[in-house]
Amino acid sequence: MTNLPELSAPDLAALLASRLCHDIISPVGAIQSGLELLDDMPDDPESMALVRNSTKSAVAKLQFARIAYGASGSASAQIDMGDARSVAEGFMSFEKANLSWSGERAYVAKNIAKLVLNLMLVANASVPRGREVQVEIEALEPAPRFTITSTGKPLRVPAKFRELLAGDAAPESIDAHAIQPYYTLVLAREAGLGIAMEQEDEKVTFRVTPLERAAPAETLESDASN
User: Fold this and answer.
1) Which pLDDT value is given to residue 170?
2) C-alpha–C-alpha distance, residues 189 and 185, integer Å
3) Percent of the chain having pLDDT more than 70?
4) pLDDT tens for residues 63-79?
5) Is 57 exposed, middle or buried (0-12, 13-18, 19+ CB in 10 A)?
6) In this structure, are residues 79 and 110 in contact, taking their beta carbons and an 8 Å threshold?
7) At how many degrees (to 10) do helices 179-190 and 159-166 cross?
8) Domain map of the chain by residue range?
């Protein structure tokens, strides 16, 4: 597995908290704006719609973050992949790309579910103008294997993810923008899984397999540079 820069636990927690705040500040700010408009124009339908839709977005993002970043009850908790799918669908309903999800439902170690959700975020960020993100759960036990594919144009895999996957990132480069891709690869490492990335024209595929079956490091670096 690609070597990753080391972060202290406090730094990791602080940067993830910053990422979470970044994700929810927009819908929360929109709620505030809508409420201020309602002060001036009570019962205004557009202001009510703004508050309602922004509240739904904020709730969806927080429910997603609770599983994707949080302990989800306890440090040793297992997570129902059905719940992971539900929060993923809620999150993606406010994004530009459409989400399709297939595969078995089971309780899995929390890092497996968190990895699926975080890699889905990387896939979603790869198609900023939208189209489709496809999650295919091939196996969960005893050896997790799944594939996440983004299809769209322009196709832009986040540069920080590429750097981290290739082992080119320095510790000082891990900031609030890089922390989510970094956390994704940390989850893979902790779960004993490898990530291979394949890119072509309007499609990028992220394949996750047990580490001993993953593509060798030099292949990962080569793929990431394409």
Assistant:
1) 78
2) 6
3) 90
4) 999 999 986 555 567 89
5) buried
6) yes
7) 40
8) 9-224
Residue 92 burial class via C-beta count within 10 angstroms: exposed 0-12, middle 13-18, buried 19 and up: buried
pLDDT band at 224; cut points 50, 70, 90 = very low
**Residue bearing the bigger pLDDT, 59 or 77:** 59
Polymer length in residues for the chain: 226
Distance between CA 167 and CA 153 in Å, rounded? 27
Question: Measured on CA atoms in the order 178, 181, 183, 185, is the torsion positive or negative?
Answer: negative
What contacts 24+ positions apart, CB below 8 Å, involve 19-22? 19/69, 19/176, 19/179, 19/180, 20/65, 20/69, 22/176
Instruction: Give the residue among 9, 5, 114 at the shortest CA–CA distance from 66.
Output: 114
Kindly report the number of other CB atoms within 10 A of residue 198's CB atom: 15
The arrangement of strands across the sheet holding 98-103 comes to 98-103, 131-139, 145-152, 203-210, 193-200
Q: Give the DSSP letter string of 148-201.
A: EEEEESS----HHHHHHHHT---GGG--TTTHHHHHHHHHHHHTTEEEEEEEET
Q: Which of 147, 148, 78 is nearest to 111 (CA)?
A: 78
Cβ pair 224, 162 in contact under 8 A? yes
- Whole-model pTM: value is 0.88
Q: Residue 29 carries which side chain, given as an amino acid letter?
A: G
Return the CATH number of 9-224, one of 1.10.760.10, 3.40.50.1000, 1.20.1600.10, 3.30.565.10: 3.30.565.10
